[in-house]
Amino acid sequence: MIDTPIIVIGGGPAGSCASARLARKGYPVILLERERFPRAHVGESLLPASIPILRDLGVLDDVEQAGFVVKRGATMVWGVDREPWSWHFCETNASNPTSYQVWRPQFDAILLDNARRCGVDVREGCAATGVAFDDTGRAVAVRCGDGELPAQFVVDASGQGGLLSRQLGLRRWDDFFRNLAVYGYFQGGQRLAAPDDGNILIESQPDGWLWHIPLRDGWASVGAVVDAATGQDGIRRLGARRFLESQIAAAPRTARMLESATPVSGPEVVRDWSYRCQSLYGPGYILVGDAGCFIDPLFSSGVHLALTSATLAAAAVTSTLSDPSMAGPVGQVYQRLYYKEYGHFRELARLFYSSNRTADSYFWEARRLLDNDPSLTPRQSFIQAVAGQPPYGYERAVLSRGLAPAAFGDSVAAVETERVRRRAGLASLANARPRLADGVRLQRQPVLADAEFVWGYGLITGGHPEGLPCSPLVASLLNRLDGCATASEAIAALCQGMAPAAAQQVQRAAIQALQILYVDGAVNITN
């Protein structure tokens, strides 16, 4: 079956990234893209988390030489203070302190050309219309034009069109983000003052919020996010252009920046909004990028989620094809990892919306997080939004600039107080009797290693429902934590039979791992 290609549907960042990675592994790959590049696409603001992926793909030099605007952070008019305030990537990301505001037609073309260089058979102007399944329910071909292309595996990167999700009825809409966006491009306006001149500006207003993204050649992407019903009514009465103008007029900072600007493209309206598919994989297929999940654009997460999910999906497909017995477990881990990354941005956006209590309007009232919100307890919301997550830079801004629900604030204080208490107890950890906390368990599962999934161990915790990957050494240590043996005794048993130098190295690593897990609450102790 090695001659049967992997079919990738869609040539955006997710499809280009996944196909390039799979072609590098030696698989024949056909990418079907319904349009011809360059093609217009919104979503210009990148996060620093995407930079390492672009580097690994081999396109970072091309991106750096394209003349895109350098993005150092974000500036917001949001929360209790109506003066603009900024945060900068360098505060939390020393490795990648800047990102880019890209022109998507060129940026996407760079990624697609890279896929070609990697050996992908890119077919532009070729729209996939459906996926064919055999009697067992396995995806075996992609319908295109008047025929079908046999597929060893199908990667659905069809974006918000969601070919497979619509065919299989997988998409579930997010009621919290019942929003609509109307956007266009302007030329000749002002930018923020240096050093924030490359920042995205996000400004809240009574009907929702606006973005202003500076692009090269004096262009700017400007969009308004409003309640779906409000937007549809306004566009019906005023038309898209006048409705966008009315939203800009309600945002004083954005309006001043556009006083001397001229509209050059648009406006466009995006009506389909936040959603998550109830399943992201199945026999012979996997969903990546917007085809699987899409979240409100407040934190510019679109391209990041596309590239991250595509990287994970390529590893999942590689592992499944090399060892079919891993197909189910690998698909489950892929889905949990993508849901976690998506969930992080979703919880931050929910918290940000709920913390903006400066406008007494339907939009903001409908998006407040009440203390009795049944979807997540405040503690669960805090854990998903902040605890155990990489420092994107938004978390402290949310807590310091907005008015978060009281119960959420109580959860923050409780978790921070507990961590301080546990750090103070580290000195006595060696003589304590550790055990896994309630609800925490170790399980054998696929873990990511060198662009493939291999069998390993994951620690399931409240902050890591996807399973925090553990080395065999840490897994062996955790299996010895029964609440009876002391930490020193468990580590000594782990090192039994080792040469002195090796035992000393393992002991240091085991103590460090145990300290981290204790402070994070995955391990409890009895004295």
What would you note in describing this structure?
With 527 residues, the protein is α+β, with helices and mostly antiparallel strands. The chain folds into three domains: 268 residues, FAD/NAD(P)-binding domain, CATH 3.50.50; 129 residues, D-Amino Acid Oxidase, Chain A, domain 2; 101 residues, Enolase-like, domain 1. Helix content is 37%, strand content 26%. It contains 17 helices and 26 strands. A seven-stranded mixed β-sheet has the order 5-4-14-15-16-13-17. Strand 9 and strand 10 form a beta hairpin. It is globular and about 75 Å long. About 2% of the residues have low confidence.
- Per DSSP E runs of 2 or more residues, the count of β-strands stands at 26
Largest sheet: 7 strands, mixed
* Structural class based on helices, strands and sheet pairing: alpha+beta
User: How much of the polypeptide forms β-strand, as a percent range?
Assistant: 25-35%
Q: Radius of gyration in whole Å, from Cα?
A: 25 Å
* Strand order in the largest sheet: 5-4-14-15-16-13-17
- How does CATH name the architecture of the largest domain? 3-Layer(bba) Sandwich
Instruction: Look at the structure and give the CATH class of the largest domain.
Output: Alpha Beta
Number of domains in the coordinates? 3
Query: What percent of the residues sit in helical stretches (DSSP H or I)?
Result: 25-40%
Mean pLDDT: 87
Distance between the termini: 59 Å
Which fold does the CATH topology of the largest domain refer to? FAD/NAD(P)-binding domain
Report the CATH superfamily of the largest domain: FAD/NAD(P)-binding domain
Total DSSP helices: 17
Shape: globular
**Uncertain stretches of 5 or more adjacent residues:** 370-374, 386-392
